[in-house]
Amino acid sequence: MAEATTPISDPYAFLNIVKNPDGSITRDLTNFPCAAATPDPTPENPAVSKDLPVNQSKSTWLRLYLPSSAVNDGVSSQKLPLVVYYHGGGFILCSVDMQPFHDFCSEMARDLNAIVVSPSYRLAPEHRLPAAYDDGMEALEWIKTSDDEWIKSHADFSKVFLMGTSAGGNLAYNVGLRSADSVSDLNPLQIRGLILHHPFFGGEERCGSEIRLVNDQVCPPIVTDVMWDLSLPVGVDRDHEYSNPTVGDGSEDLEKFGRLRWKVMMIGGEDDPMIDRQRDVAKLMKKRGVELVEHYTVGHVHGAEIGEPSKRKTLFLSIKNFISSLL
């Protein structure tokens, strides 16, 4: 249930984190089981996967997913779309190999018939924004120069999509802005669109859905306030452009989305306290000439399809239709 009568009183306890005197946090990962990569095709694996280093000095890496059907077909003349997927966690929690994200990406690779690349990124507050955006861009650089056999044999660099859930959706949006300003540098990667799944946005003044869902039990405003406090640059508030893309009428680079003919899919849930912010960002993008597909689902809480596998099929079908419209 998205709304409850009992408010969250201690956001740090809710997140299972403790703030340390040096500004770092201690994370209790007991409730975050991880999954190993699955490099060998088996009947129960929708996709094979493997882990590869990106930048050892930053301890960043990625998990690469290839549909099991592509492995069975061997090297095919038909290459697959490439989806770069950034995980969620409010910029302070979670990892690529968390079981729900691993399962989500594995099923997505199968259902979209696409290669999925899920890069890690450094977490705040130890590494505040824009560190995650820097790492997101570095992952694209890694992909374009990779000599990995799966990528060389199966990835269609002319069909690249940036996607993320929650903080990962915010990351995909900001990596998209940077990429729009450096298209030639990413060649031969050609981004065709962005898929923003329940993107994590904020602001100083409470929006309507934050007021309506103030006691939400999944991602209440009192908790997201702490996430922003720990992840934004020191000294700024939630109306910073990283958290509130609508401030100052948005980034000038937004108009480049339209000129590049990039299309954006905004996915949200009506029981997510951030739904009104997501709609406001969608409205801004349309105002700036960006072609947009909006997909909002009644009864869905923040990140619903990550925690509820039964909801994924419908989501992936919508994303597959979106991708097909651009190919």
How would you sum up this structure, described in words?
This protein is of the alpha/beta class. It has one domain (32-325): Rossmann fold, CATH 3.40.50. The protein is 35% helix and 20% strand. The chain has 13 helices and 10 strands. The chain has an 8-stranded mixed β-sheet with strand order 3-4-6-5-7-8-9-10, with helices on both faces. A two-stranded antiparallel sheet has the order 1-2. Helix 3 (99-112) crosses helix 13 and helix 4 crosses helix 6 (167-180). The termini are far apart. The mean pLDDT is 95.
List the helices and strands and how they pair.
Elements: H1 11-15, E1 17-19, E2 25-27, E3 47-55, E4 60-67, H2 68-73, E5 80-86, H3 99-112, E6 115-119, H4 131-145, H5 149-154, E7 155-165, H6 167-180, H7 183-186, E8 191-197, H8 208-212, H9 221-231, H10 254-259, E9 263-269, H11 275-287, E10 291-297, H12 304-307, H13 312-324
Parallel strand pairs: 5-6, 5-7, 7-8, 8-9, 9-10
Antiparallel strand pairs: 1-2, 3-4, 4-6
Helix pairs in contact: 3-13, 4-6
Q: Outline the low-pLDDT stretches.
A: none
Gyration radius, rounded: 19 Å
And the CATH topology? Rossmann fold
Q: Could you say what the CATH architecture is?
A: 3-Layer(aba) Sandwich
Overall helicity: 25-40%
Order of helices and strands: HEEEEHEHEHHEHHEHHHEHEHH
Tell me, rounded to a whole number, the average pLDDT.
95
Trace the largest sheet across and list its strands. Answer: 3-4-6-5-7-8-9-10
In terms of DSSP E residues, the strand content is 15-25%
Count of runs of 4 or more consecutive helical residues: 13
Number of strands: 10
GO molecular function: 4-hydroxyphenylacetate decarboxylase activity; carboxylesterase activity
Protein name: Alpha/beta hydrolase fold-3 domain-containing protein
Family: Belongs to the 'GDXG' lipolytic enzyme family.
Domain Alpha/beta hydrolase fold-3: 83-303
